[in-house]
Design goal:
Order of helices and strands: HHHHHH
Number of domains: 2
Structural class: mainly alpha
Distance between the termini: 44 Å
Strand content: under 5%
Largest sheet: none
Radius of gyration: 18 Å
Shape: globular
Number of strands: 0
Oligomer: single chain
Number of helices: 6
Length: 183
């Protein structure tokens, strides 16, 4: 197994560690959970960097990396909502985007030759924005800072979704052509 894939699996394994600290009664539990979140973010950056720099990109990694990102994102969002740290609408907006992405990716993979929607700068910017917004809460920045950061994150996720939709339609165009040809 490649180093990037090991780092991605490590990121998934950090989710229960984050949850343990987040919901524990330890002093500084929120900060400890935040440090685990930072470690997960570092592993995310490292796995992508190593995979590209050393040509270690794999099909497994192309699927596993965004899955790990989604799992960590939902873990953070749900845990924050459960303690009243952020409003539910943030989870709803990002959740709808992710469900649409999963459905679109599944269609491409299952019905168009196992194609995978590639990550791009729009998705990376949205993910970075999420990390910054979440860290603003972990480090207890004032709401007048963290609230706009979460709003920006939702906006950037919508922009990323629109960009992925354009890519999807380009990748999926042959699907429509094939369906017309079969009729």
């Amino acid at each position: 197994m490649s180093i990037p894939n090991i780092l991605t699996i490590l990121r998934i394994l950090l989710i229960p560690v984050y949850l343990y600290f987040f919901y524990s009664n330890l002093s500084n539990s929120f900060l400890l959970a935040g440090l685990v979140f930072i470690l997960a973010g570092i592993s995310d950056i490292l796995d992508g960097y190593i995979a590209r720099k050393y040509n270690m990109t794999t099909k497994l990694g192309i699927i596993l990396d965004p899955a790990a990102d989604k799992l960590m994102t939902f873990t953070i969002l749900i845990s924050f909502i459960s303690k009243g740290i952020i409003p539910f609408w943030i989870l709803t907006a990002i959740g709808i985007k992710e469900v649409i992405m999963i459905l679109g990716g599944s269609i491409l993979y299952l019905f168009k030759g196992k194609q995978v929607l590639p990550s791009n700068k729009y998705g990376k910017v949205a993910t970075t924005s999420f990390y910054v917004a979440a860290l603003s809460k972990i480090f207890r920045l004032p709401d007048f800072i963290s609230t706009p950061l979460f709003s920006l994150t939702v906006f950037l996720n919508i922009v990323a979704l629109l960009n992925y939709f354009i890519i999807f339609t380009r990748m999926g165009k042959p699907i429509a052509d094939e369906m017309v040809d079969k009729q």
